[in-house]
Design a protein that fits this description.
- It comes from Saccharopolyspora thermophila.
- InterPro entries: Cro/C1-type_HTH, Lambda_DNA-bd_dom_sf.
- The chain is mostly helical.
- It folds into 4 domains: about 60 residues, lambda repressor-like DNA-binding domains (434 Repressor (Amino-terminal Domain)), CATH 1.10.260.40; about 140 residues, no CATH class; about 90 residues; about 90 residues.
- Helices cover about 70% and strands about 0% of the residues.
- The chain is built from 21 helices and no strands.
- The radius of gyration is 22 Å and the shape is globular.
Length: about 400
């Protein structure tokens, strides 16, 4: 914060005025004497300093699995291939060829399964090849209406997976590129459920870069647009519809709009009641339990920390995908840490790490929680050793 403030030529007093805070608040945050736990405040800081949220948090953007493999640059290369910019300029390079979409679709759905099981490293490893396959599918779609719709649908799913995975590991800008590609492909697929799913990817990417108003607008627009599809009683449509309300509720909570967040959560709850079960259509994990987890997440963003701890410790979402279980555990650990219940927060994080090491170790939220707990931890009698181990694995300490 101090680095970017000075680079912008701002005094502490000027930044304090722009933030509606005192100069003493700015000084204490810059010296590390005060924590900023509310994400909407962090987003506003990043906006005033004209940097991304990841820049402000100082988070690394390289993802390494347990074998020290980092394939994010390969995903970046696949997404940012210049051949995607113009078919006129690169028509000779991208010669249309027939690619059977069905094997690609099967690999894509298996990658989605791996993501929900917390194997983020595996997903990042297969994404470059999947993205290239998506490009081949799209390039061979011209003049083949039936093939084109299926090809674009598969491409939308691939880019949705890329957007969701990249936002999870802190690559917010790449996530937005992937989400935009997902929605462009979904437009061509002429399938309302494919477009609704891609819109969900868009809300993920917008939330990752702190654009809460835009995430709210996209999610609400997509939900209204697909409402007619619900008349047929398709559980997939109902799941996507409900998930759009959950994502927009998160956006509303992060901009501190309690009333809107509550209304959206209630609409999601109504959809979950109609569905009648915790299911996983379109890899949504949607149902009554997921609605409850999002209520807790929204409550945390709204500052209802004690309520999150009381209700969150009683929730046992073991039948939901591992990614959802771990996301809930991270929220609960954050709340426990805010109440200085560091031993309980550490226990929750270590349990989550056992389920999905990569999701925990590469979470910016986990890194900040662990860093805060490590600063407060006693160093005598070896009590801090489990915490130190987690801090090192998360790179919260060097």
């Amino acid at each position: 914060m101090a680095f970017y403030r000075r680079r912008r030529g701002m005094s502490q007093a000027l930044l304090a005025g722009l933030m509606g805070r005192s100069e003493d608040w700015v000084s204490k945050v810059e010296r590390g004497e005060r924590q900023v736990n509310r994400i909407d405040v962090l987003v506003e800081l990043a906006r005033q300093l004209r940097v991304t949220l990841n820049d402000l948090l100082g988070e690394p953007v390289l993802f390494e699995d347990e074998n020290s493999n980092d394939d994010v640059p390969a995903v970046r290369d696949a997404l940012m291939s210049p051949q995607r910019l113009s078919r006129t300029l690169f028509g000779d390079v991208l010669q249309p060829e027939y690619v059977d979409p069905e094997p690609v679709a099967r690999v894509t759905e298996e990658a989605w399964h791996q993501y929900q099981n917390g194997a983020v490293g595996h997903v990042i490893g297969v994404l470059p090849g999947l993205i290239k396959s998506a490009q081949q599918l799209e390039s061979g779609a011209a003049g083949r209406p039936g093939y084109a719709r299926r090809a674009y649908a598969v491409s939308a799913r691939i880019h949705h997976l890329a957007a969701t995975t990249l936002s999870k590991v802190g690559e917010a800008d790449l996530s937005w590129i992937a989400a935009e590609r997902a929605m462009q492909a979904a437009d061509q697929a002429e399938d309302p459920l494919v477009l609704a799913s891609a819109a969900r990817a868009g809300t993920h990417a917008l939330l990752a870069v702190g654009r809460f108003d835009e995430a709210l607008s996209l999610g609400e627009t997509a939900a209204r647009w697909m409402a007619p599809a619900l008349r047929e009683g398709d559980p997939g449509a109902l799941s996507l519809y409900g998930m759009l309300f959950l994502r927009t509720a998160v956006a509303a909570a992060r901009r501190q709009d309690r009333r809107t967040a509550t209304e959206l959560l209630n609409q999601a709850s109504t959809a979950a009641e109609r569905l009648g079960e915790d299911a996983n259509y379109w890899q949504t994990g949607f149902g009554p339990s997921n609605v409850e987890l999002h209520r807790l997440s929204a409550a945390l963003d709204l500052g209802d920390v004690a309520n999150v701890v009381e209700r969150g410790e009683a929730v046992r979402p073991i039948h939901l995908p591992i990614e959802r279980q771990v996301t809930h555990a991270i929220d609960l650990a954050r709340a426990l840490s805010m109440l200085a219940r560091d031993d309980d927060a550490l226990r929750v994080l270590l349990d989550a790490e056992q389920k999905a090491p990569q999701l925990v170790r590469h979470s910016s939220m986990v890194r900040e929680v662990v860093r805060t707990m490590y600063r407060r931890a006693p160093v005598s009698n070896g009590k801090s050793s489990p915490l130190l181990g987690l801090a090192e694995r998360c790179r919260a300490v060097r």
